[in-house]
TrEMBL record:
This is Peptide methionine sulfoxide reductase MsrA. Residues 1-25 form the signal peptide. InterPro entries: Met_Sox_Rdtase_MsrA_dom, Met_Sox_Rdtase_MsrA_sf, Met_Sox_Rdtase_MsrB, Met_Sox_Rdtase_MsrB_dom, Mss4-like_sf. In the N-terminal section; belongs to the MsrA Met sulfoxide reductase family. In the C-terminal section; belongs to the MsrB Met sulfoxide reductase family. The keyword Oxidoreductase applies. It comes from Vibrio ostreae. The gene is msrB.
Length: 376
């Protein structure tokens, strides 16, 4: 069973022996489904976990736990977990191609496993637990190759991906008691998942707010590309920050404070120009996107360039808000809400103390001439 500790092993094997979920191999391919249904066969360690994660993706129709890649017909769990059959613990995902692309399926899958470990998966060691993508046709292979190359180039996982691409042949469904294990034996599943270290690893890679504020791998790749194309700004040292900021500016940007509404420098500023980070100088917002929100703080429908903005979940109050920070200065700027006007529907509610206003007529002299096009 799962190689965690002897006590956990004893706990998990104390299960009724189920009959085989199917007696024959499932030779699934896109041709055997309705036109809008497609199939992906994936391996990311424990299929209890990968099945649970993939079933949460909107557009997924069904997920079956099983085995693929080996030489033994209709293998049992005991045979596969011994590592002697050549099979990998896998899942087969049926999804609606009208709602999901194959890349989007892979995106969700790779964000819920460790695709950099070819020696197993978290506490489960051995080739039978290694990550793999079983491609059903040339198109799936090409999509997977290109997508994983982009992920590597962006350096999202900090280590090269070692997820194997294998031509799909057969998929054997696992015993019935393994199907939807996270529903049938929720307490045992939760204990195993926590002990495996899977979620702790994913929190390190994607942040502990990844469930409340998820970002796809495609979004992260695009952000990395955008950052590489923008000017890099430098965050001053702690001593320099303390020396240049007022007490209020320091408390807002460094200690996440909020200034008073209707009693701050820019809430009613109507002059043309841009607002830059008080700490780093990176360009944040333009007067062309500023509007009167009635909140008493300067409000904008969008940033000048999203590459200079970082968002994260903020749970300091009784509900979750989305905090906004500058990328290079790491300054706390304010929050963004979904109650703004067209065209974005967003309200970037910022602290004046976190920003410095550069009038349009001074932008060229201060090095922001590239943004004068905003006022044409």
């Amino acid at each position: 069973m799962k190689r965690i500790t002897i006590s956990l092993l004893a706990l998990l094997v104390a299960l009724p022996v189920g009959l085989s979920f199917f007696s024959q191999a499932s030779n699934h391919s896109s041709a055997s489904h309705a036109e809008h249904e497609q199939v992906a066969t994936l391996a990311g360690g424990c299929f209890w976990c990968t099945e649970s994660d993939m079933e949460k993706l909107d557009g997924v129709i069904d997920v079956v736990s099983g085995y693929s890649g080996g030489t033994v017909d209709n293998p049992t769990y005991k045979q596969v977990s011994s590592g002697t059959t050549g099979h990998i613990e896998s899942i087969q995902v049926t999804y609606d191609s009208d709602k999901l692309s194959y890349e989007q399926v892979l995106d969700h899958f790779l964000r819920h496993i460790d695709p950099t470990d070819d020696g197993g998966s978290f506490v489960d060691r051995g080739n039978q637990y290694r990550p793999a993508i079983f491609y059903h046709d040339t198109q799936q292979k090409q999509v997977a190759e290109r997508f994983m190359q982009e992920i590597d180039q962006a350096g999202i996982f900090h280590k090269p991906l070692k997820t194997e691409l294998i031509a799909f042949k057969k998929f054997w469904p696992a015993e019935e008691y393994h199907q939807d294990y996270y529903k049938k034996s929720s307490l045992r599943y939760k204990y195993y998942r926590y002990a495996s270290g899977r979620d702790q690893y994913l929190d390190q890679i994607f942040g502990d707010d990844r469930e409340d504020n998820p970002k796809t791998l495609r979004q992260l790749i695009d952000e990395k590309r955008a950052i590489s194309e923008v000017k890099v700004y430098t965050r001053p040292s702690e001593d320099q920050i303390r020396a240049k900021l007022t007490d209020l500016q320091y408390r807002v940007t460094q200690e996440d404070a909020t200034e008073r509404a209707f009693n701050n420098e820019y809430w009613d500023n109507k002059a043309e120009g841009i607002y830059v980070d008080i700490v780093s100088g990176e360009p944040l917002f333009s007067s062309t996107d500023k509007y009167k929100s009635g909140t008493g703080w300067p409000s904008f429908t969008q940033p000048i360039d999203p590459a200079y903005i970082v968002t994260k979940s903020d749970n300091t109050l009784f509900y979750t808000r989305t905090e906004v920070r500058s990328r290079f200065g790491r300054s706390h700027l304010g929050h963004v809400f979904e109650d703004g006007p067209a065209p974005t529907g967003l309200r970037y509610c910022m602290n004046s103390a976190a920003m410095r206003f550069v009038p349009k007529e001074e932008m060229q002299a201060q090095g922001y001439g590239a943004y004068l096009k905003l006022f044409q």
